[in-house]
Design a protein that fits this description.
Blueprint lengths: L6 H102 L4 E9 L2 E8 L2 H12 L4 E14 L2 E12 L2 H6 L7
Antiparallel strand pairs: 1-2, 2-4, 3-4
């Protein structure tokens, strides 16, 4: 049988396989680097796009914050105007009240009773005066109690003083002014 030496052929084949493997490995490495580069660029594009959207949203948020500040200042101005309107409306509704009050004071005052001082704080009335007797002060209190505009009479002080031959009862009387709505309902009616 003939003897053939195959060693150089196997070495040559092995070198070719190694070169082929190195070429394929280099190709895979280049391909992996290219894929990594493309993925990196894609992700970087996504990040830049998101940053642009974020900056746009931040700018819009700043605009909305400015609008909110403007709205809050307008609300504050509106509330101030409404408060002024309410005060004006209250003053308008209470305007005829002083006329009714003075008229009612005259109507409820019985003969023999004179008022020296009259003060009003809100709906609270304080009347200081003199009467010929305690009974006339009681009659005055009954008149106030039956009045449409005045009510809740409370005698704070009463003292009898000798004035010459006559006796005079000095008094301090508290009363409340009834609600303006009650008075508005009776505006067209004659008080008894």
């Amino acid at each position: 049988m003939a003897y053939i030496n195959l060693l150089p052929w196997r070495e040559k084949k092995r070198k070719e396989q190694q070169q082929e493997f190195a070429f394929i490995a280099a190709g895979v490495a280049v391909l992996a680097a290219a894929v990594w580069f493309l993925i990196h660029m894609q992700v970087q594009g996504f990040i830049e796009g998101q940053e642009q959207r974020n900056s746009f949203l931040q700018a819009e948020i700043r605009k909305l914050d400015e609008q909110i500040k403007t709205i809050k200042s307008l609300d504050k101005t509106k509330n101030q105007l409404l408060a002024r309107m309410n005060v004006i409306q209250e003053l308008q509704s209470n305007r005829p009240l002083s006329v009714h009050l003075m008229d009612e004071l005259v109507r409820t005052l019985p003969d023999g009773v004179h008022l020296n001082k009259f003060t009003q704080r809100g709906n609270e009335l304080t009347m200081e005066g003199e009467a010929q007797s305690n009974a006339r002060v009681s009659a005055y209190m009954r008149n106030i109690d039956s009045s449409l505009w005045l009510g809740n009479p409370r005698l704070q002080v009463i003292e009898t003083i000798e004035a010459g031959r006559n006796r005079v009862a000095r008094f301090v009387l508290l009363a409340t002014l009834k609600a303006a709505a009650t008075g508005e309902q009776t505006d067209g009616q004659e008080n008894p």
